[in-house]
Amino acid sequence: MTELVPLFSASIANAGIDFITPVMKVIDSHWYILGEEVKRFESEFAKYVGVDHCISVANGSDALELALRGLQVKPGDRVVAVANAGFYGSTAIHAVGAVPVYLDVDPDTLTLCPKALAAMIDSKPAVVIVTHLYGQLAGIEELVKIASAAGIPVLEDCAQSHGAQRQGRRAGSFGTVGCFSFYPTKNLGALGDGGAIVTQDTELAERIRQLRQYGWSRKYEVSLGGGRNSRLDEIQAAILRIKLPHLDAWNAQRREIAMRYNSAFAGLEAKLPSSTGEDYVAHLYVLRVANRERFAVALKEKSIATDIHYPIPDHRQPAYVHRDVSLPVTESACETVISLPCFPGMTDQQVQQVIDAVSDYFLKGA
Ligand SMILES: *Cc1c(COP(=O)(O)O)cnc(C)c1O
Fold first, then answer.
1. Whole-angstrom Cα distance, residue 161 to residue 104?
2. Sign, CA torsion 42/203/159/65
3. Model's pTM, two decimal places?
4. The domain containing residue 320 runs over which residues?
5. 89: CA distance to ligand 1 center in Å?
6. For the chain, which end, N or C, has fewer CB atoms within 10 Å of the first or last residue's CB respectively?
7. Is residue 284 pLDDT above 70, yes or no?
8. What whole-number percentage of the chain has pLDDT above 90?
9. Residue where a domain terminates, one of 218, 245, 272
10. Residue 175 and residue 235: Cα distance in Å, rounded?
11. Ligand 1 pocket: which of 181, 230, 307 to mutate (most atoms <8 Å of CB)?
């Protein structure tokens, strides 16, 4: 029996990193919340993304919700989102009492389709959420242009795209505000939950900074409604500071694996990721395959893990059914997408094992 190739391995991805020193530094300081480590991480991450402000929060979902609150989205407002990105944006939209307006995705990148946005922008949604899905930058320049011309802010969901860049600009620096998650499997992951919001807008940054801590303008003075407690703690900030300098190298390793896959799978009956350039940080390597269940079983028989990101489009989730919405590209993608192992530290042999199994399936078994 060959050893299982996992979809992601935290133990391999984190191998060789000294976590004891940063954690002990925080323990010895006896300062656990909103201290020096958080302040330094925020400044280092803002610099990495290429923006002025970073506000760390408890997780990526809070980042999305607090960003919407910071943008002063009100109950009943309409917020544009895609429906193939795991419902995270939708959760934030519902949390602020707004209404999601789902648009279809581009068939190549599976990110928000600029034509679909242009066709509806005159109806004046409150915010446009753009998710850089699987680590692939959306057509963000064009999307921002369309939204800005109508005076509408763009929120980038960068939870899968830390470090993705085009012409020297990184994910999170194109729109009005960018949201990140540091969940352990993300390209930059903590040893627990974490998140951040980045922006160039000083007033927006100040509002979000207040919202993450009870709406306080200063201690015990609640100046902003809708506040709560959502903070990154000092230990996670110290860990993220140790990991951030490795991010570009880890992204390069992920991209290298994606490149090997793409060249090995060219010509097979599968749709491949559209880019392996710097605008793709290979958070997930996703194929589109006609008979997905059979494909998954064939790979499992060869000890290769797969998963589906994501099986149910947002507008078909049982808790929030939108019967009147039809999104052909999104719906077809949800039926055919399947993710293959792709993570930093994955060995050449593991990559080859995946390549052999996929090639075998299509050349012999399909
Ligand atoms: C992981 C993820 C989130 C949510 O982040 P959490 O830290 O788990 O709350 C949001 N959006 C996308 C696209 C994600 O992949």
1. 20
2. positive
3. 0.98
4. 246-363
5. 9
6. N
7. yes
8. 98
9. 245
10. 30
11. 181
* Same domain as 315, residue 168: no
Mean pLDDT over 242-266 rounds to 98
Are both 39 and 62 inside the same structural domain?
yes
Judged by average pLDDT, the poorest of 32-36, 95-99, 318-322, 358-362 is 318-322
d(CA 365, ligand 1 centre) in Å = 36
Domains identified in the chain, total number: 2
Pair (215, 137) in one structural domain: yes
Q: What is the pLDDT of residues 27-40, one digit of tens each?
A: 999 999 999 999 99
Structure tokens, 115? 């034509």
Q: Are residues 75 and 127 in the same domain?
A: yes
Task: Tell how strand 154-157 and strand 127-131 pair up.
Answer: parallel
Residue 134 shares a structural domain with residue 194? yes
* pLDDT tens, residue by residue, 50-73: 999 999 999 999 999 999 999 999
Q: Which of the listed residues 183, 232, 240, 339 should we mutate to test ligand 1's pocket, taking the one with most ligand atoms within 8 A of CB?
A: 183
Q: Cα dihedral angle (213, 218, 222, 228), rounded to 10 degrees?
A: 0
Residue in 61, 68, 84 to alter for ligand 1 test, most ligand atoms within 8 A of Cβ: 61
Span from the CA of 159 to the centroid of ligand 1 (angstroms): 5
**Residue nearest ligand 1's atom 5 by CA:** 60
